[in-house]
Each structure stands twice: as structure tokens, then as C-alpha cells.
Amino acid sequence: MFVPADGIGPVMVYRHYLRNEALTGVSAVAPKVMESRKQYDWEQSQPVEHRPYIRDIDGKRRFFWLTTVVTYKDKKHAGERGFIAGSTPAITLTDAMYKTVVWVDPNQARPGQISSRMKLSVVWKSN
User: Fold this and answer.
1) Quick one: which of 104, 127, 99, 107 has its CA closest to 117?
2) In whole angstroms, how far apart are CA 118 and each of 25, 26, 50, 90, 109?
3) The whole model's pTM is what?
4) Cα–Cα dist 13/2, whole Å
5) Within 10 A of 2 (CB to CB), how many other CB atoms are there?
6) Which of 11, 67, 97, 122 could join 92 in a cystine, given CB atoms 3.0 to 4.6 angstroms apart?
7) pLDDT for res 81
8) Are strands 90-95 and 101-104 parallel, antiparallel or unpaired?
9) DSSP labels for the chain?
10) pLDDT tens, 73-125?
């Protein structure tokens, strides 16, 4: 069930069990994002926010987790309010069905609309 945070708009229900889908839950997203880039400075950065991102692509409803990865000013402030002011956070899309993580250019007008689709189409075609 998805309830708009501002209370405006419809409440949505995604019945994945009717489609025989076993989707990745939000608690598994951060480790998947970190696994996807082993050469990343994970002592200074952390995936901190995961939001549902649902799109109809090629006639199929696709469920993603949109994750924001922030960088801290220094290691001792990790977990506190130590973000680098003015920096652009990294963004990832995690396909909830196939657990595939795609890093998105945060400067694109629409996150991952084109590049993520091209990267994930290989996964979708093989299944």
C-alpha cells in the first residue's frame, strides 16, 4: 500500500501476489546498492533513502526502489548531520523483481528513463 506523504492524491495498492512476484523489500536495498559498486568509498557515503518508483514500461508494470546515496563531510559525522552542503547525491534504481541495481546520472531530467531502461532490458529479456 502506498499512501501519499502529503495526503494529496490516491492511495495505491500493488498486489504482487496476484502476479506471482516475490519482490525485493526495502530492507534489502541498501546492501544491494553497496554490492553493486565495490570500488566506491562506502566509509564516506551511504544509501540513506529508498522510495518506491513504479513505472509502466513496454506494457508491463515495473517496480523499482529509487535510492539516494549521500556523501558525508567526514567519517566521524556518518549517521549525523554531516552531509556535504551543495553536493549532488548519487541516485540508483533497484529492480525489485531481479535485484539489479542501475546507477543513474542525477543530472538527467527524468531519472533513468532512457539509460536505465537500456541497461535493464538485458535482464528483462533473459527472464
Assistant:
1) 104
2) 24, 24, 22, 19, 17
3) 0.75
4) 6
5) 13
6) 67
7) 60
8) antiparallel
9) -B--TTS-S--B---GGGGT--PPPGGGHHHHHHHH-TTS-TTTEEEEEEEEEEEEETTEEEEEEEEEEEEBSSGGGTTTT-BPTTPPPEEEEEETTT--EEEE-TTSSSTTTTHHHHHHHHHHHH-
10) 765 655 556 666 567 888 899 999 889 998 987 776 464 454 555 566 666 66
Residue 60's identity, in one-letter code, is K
Q: Cell numbers of 38, please? A: 565495490
